Backbone:
């Protein structure tokens, strides 16, 4: 997957390229809107990460020009999040919008969502290592043993299983599982994860839920 | 302000005074002028009618027209000593018989009243002779008793004196009216200026008010009664400004302080780590600690932006019908784990629906519940309740916590305020939670209240007003 990163700030460009490359993407980084537009129209990218505030030709102009010929998905990065800005970005054809400061895990999650071809296949059962999740019956077994979960615990596990190997930030988990869309100062998510671990990981040899320090949590089979 | 009206109140009032004076003088003057004219005229008429009667008598006694022509002395005598009297006699065919003052020139033709009739108001005319003398004249037929011949009698009274008198009187009145108007304009200007002196005094006081001295206000006692309302309103506006200004200054100071602490932590921690080589775990520990600090800063910025926007009503409130119990249950589910960790139980008692923005509602209740759990001892219960009042839906979050000091209550909802200053290093709360609750309630047109219940619970009440049509 090739990503074009248009970001004028050196530090930000450096770490975004590094982070995205380590997440498995091929990243080209340019620092001006004009270069960005040139690359975007002359090469083939799967996604463009575009900063709004660029010297000379800003992000709005770039996307306006780009949309005349290309339908490449565009993810905007901006430090401004006035409602008007958001609306403007989406009207001009942006596919998503991320406000600085954002969590890196959040960025990666958004990029994955944009790059997904078609909707996620909602399968009836999910299998991770020796754990099986029956979505319809809301039943979880591990190594053949039935595990009893509360409704919210199941929602949390199901979310992580659906997006296994993705690092999920705390705010994303809070929003998806409890529909709480604000960052609270409490460690609600950490507590919930800990309680889930007691049920699905602790009795077994191989842990499936992993903490990515400073970023969030991921469900994956690390064998 | 109408385009034709001068901007100065003083000038405008002075001009109006002048106009009123001019109008009054003109009306009074006109009345006096006309009544004088009437008097003079009736005096002239008396003279005229006297002479007419005399002439009728003399003509009656004359022998014939010829006799009058031959010996006009009798008639001349009648006019003697009356320089302002013109007597003209003509025969029936209009031939002149007598003219006491030929120098005065001819008179225009006059309608002749019948014999033996006193000329009425209609037949007495104000005229000018051909020489330009203003006269009051009348004409009538006379009859010589003996011969039965008819004679035209024309009597005219010179009214130049009256006319001159009226003329000078008129110019005096005009002069007086103009002078009076000017005088009252001048007086009005001076008096109004004096009368408005308190406003200039108030303006001078207002000039000395600056951002640092907003609390000075204007002196109500020195203001005249009519301006006291204005001064009081102005002062209360100043008080509100002063209050906001104080809060804003306090907010800036708190903000700087609250940013200083975490940034200092980040800087020093990182510098200490860099001072000598460390092992990987230590570096990772430092980075994780930094990320936590950064996340806190980001949260704080988010909350501050939210507050700033809510203040300027830039936050869209998308109201929906929500089930109270369901909403409280959702939040209880969210905090369930945290509460259990603290040994705190959450109880819910709620009924009915309410109209609110779900995102904002959850944020407000979430902040209160997080606080309640934080301050509740293990084994205790945090109560979440919703009840329907006639005009509002009340949501209360109560917990048996330590009593909040009376002094702290008014400031509790201020930004960055913490009832316990020593908690300023608390990693969990930036001190914006309650300020956000208050902002959200304002956006909904409701309010948040803090009280102490009979069973020693700290109770936060959210009042969501019901729309009038429900």
Residues:
């Amino acid at each position: 997957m090739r990503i074009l990163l248009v970001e004028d700030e050196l530090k930000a460009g450096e770490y975004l390229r590094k982070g995205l490359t380590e997440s498995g993407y091929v990243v080209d980084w340019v620092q001006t809107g004009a270069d960005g537009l040139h690359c975007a129209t002359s090469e083939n990218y799967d996604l463009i990460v575009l900063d709004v505030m660029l010297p000379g030709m800003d992000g709005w102009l770039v996307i306006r020009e780009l949309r005349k010929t290309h339908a490449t998905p565009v993810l905007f990065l901006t430090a401004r999040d006035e409602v008007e800005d958001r609306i403007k970005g989406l009207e001009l054809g942006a596919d998503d919008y991320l406000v600085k400061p954002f969590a890196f895990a959040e960025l990666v999650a958004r990029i994955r969502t944009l790059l997904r071809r078609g909707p996620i296949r909602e399968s009836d059962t999910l299998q991770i290592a020796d754990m099986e999740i029956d979505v319809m019956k809301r039943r979880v077994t591990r190594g053949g043993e039935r595990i009893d979960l509360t409704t919210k615990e199941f929602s949390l596990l199901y979310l992580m299983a659906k997006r296994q190997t993705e690092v999920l930030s705390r705010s994303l988990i809070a929003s998806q599982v409890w529909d709480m869309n604000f960052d609270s100062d409490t460690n609600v998510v950490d507590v919930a994860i800990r309680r889930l671990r007691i049920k699905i990981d602790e009795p077994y040899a191989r842990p499936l839920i992993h903490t990515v320090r400073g970023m969030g949590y991921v469900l994956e089979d690390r064998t | 302000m109408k385009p034709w009206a001068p901007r100065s109140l003083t000038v405008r009032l002075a001009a109006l005074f002048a106009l009123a004076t001019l109008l009054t003088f003109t009306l009074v003057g006109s009345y006096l002028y006309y009544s004088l004219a009437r008097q003079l005229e009736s005096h002239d008429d008396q003279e005229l009618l006297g002479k007419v009667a005399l002439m009728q008598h003399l003509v009656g006694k004359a022998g014939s027209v010829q006799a009058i022509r031959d010996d006009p002395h009798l008639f001349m005598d009648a006019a003697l000593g009356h320089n302002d009297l013109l007597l003209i006699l003509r025969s029936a065919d209009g031939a002149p018989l007598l003219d006491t003052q030929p120098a005065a020139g001819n008179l225009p033709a006059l309608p002749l009243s019948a014999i033996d009739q006193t000329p009425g108001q209609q037949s007495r005319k104000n005229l000018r002779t051909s020489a330009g003398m203003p006269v009051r004249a009348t004409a009538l037929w006379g009859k010589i008793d003996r011969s039965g011949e008819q004679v035209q009698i024309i009597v005219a009274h010179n009214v130049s004196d009256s006319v001159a008198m009226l003329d000078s009187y008129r110019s005096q009145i005009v002069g007086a009216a103009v002078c009076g108007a000017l005088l009252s304009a001048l007086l009005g200007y001076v008096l109004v200026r004096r009368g408005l002196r308190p406003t200039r005094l108030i303006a001078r006081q207002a000039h000395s008010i600056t951002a640092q001295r907003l609390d000075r206000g204007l002196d109500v006692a020195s203001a005249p009664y009519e301006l006291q309302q204005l001064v009081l309103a102005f002062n209360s506006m100043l008080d509100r400004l002063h209050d906001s200004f104080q809060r804003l200054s306090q907010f800036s100071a708190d903000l700087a302080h609250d940013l200083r602490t975490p940034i200092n932590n980040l800087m020093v921690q990182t510098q200490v780590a860099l001072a000598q080589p460390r092992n990987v775990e230590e570096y990772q520990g430092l980075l994780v600690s930094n990320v936590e600090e950064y996340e806190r800063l980001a949260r704080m910025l988010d909350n501050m932006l939210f507050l700033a926007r809510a203040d300027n009503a830039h936050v869209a409130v998308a109201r929906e019908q929500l089930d109270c119990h369901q909403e409280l249950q959702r939040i209880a589910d969210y905090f369930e784990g945290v509460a259990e960790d603290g040994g705190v139980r959450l109880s819910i008692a709620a009924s009915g629906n309410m109209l609110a923005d779900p995102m904002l509602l959850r944020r407000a209740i979430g902040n209160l519940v997080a606080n309640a759990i934080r301050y509740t001892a293990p084994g205790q219960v945090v109560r979440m309740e919703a009840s329907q009042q006639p005009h509002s839906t009340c949501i209360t979050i109560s917990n048996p916590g330590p009593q909040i000091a009376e002094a702290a209550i008014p400031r509790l909802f201020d930004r960055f305020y913490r009832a316990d200053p020593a908690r300023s290093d608390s990693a969990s709360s930036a001190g914006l939670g309650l300020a956000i609750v208050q902002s959200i309630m304002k956006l909904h047109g409701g309010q948040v209240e803090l009280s102490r219940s009979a069973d020693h619970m700290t109770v936060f009440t959210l009042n969501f007003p019901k729309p009038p049509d429900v």
Remarks:
- Chain A is about 40% helix and 20% strand.
- The radius of gyration of chain A is 20 Å.
- Chain A touches chain B at residues 81-83, 101, 103, 151-152, 174, 178-188, 191-192, 194-195, 213-215 (CB under 8 Å).
- Chain A has a mean pLDDT of 89.
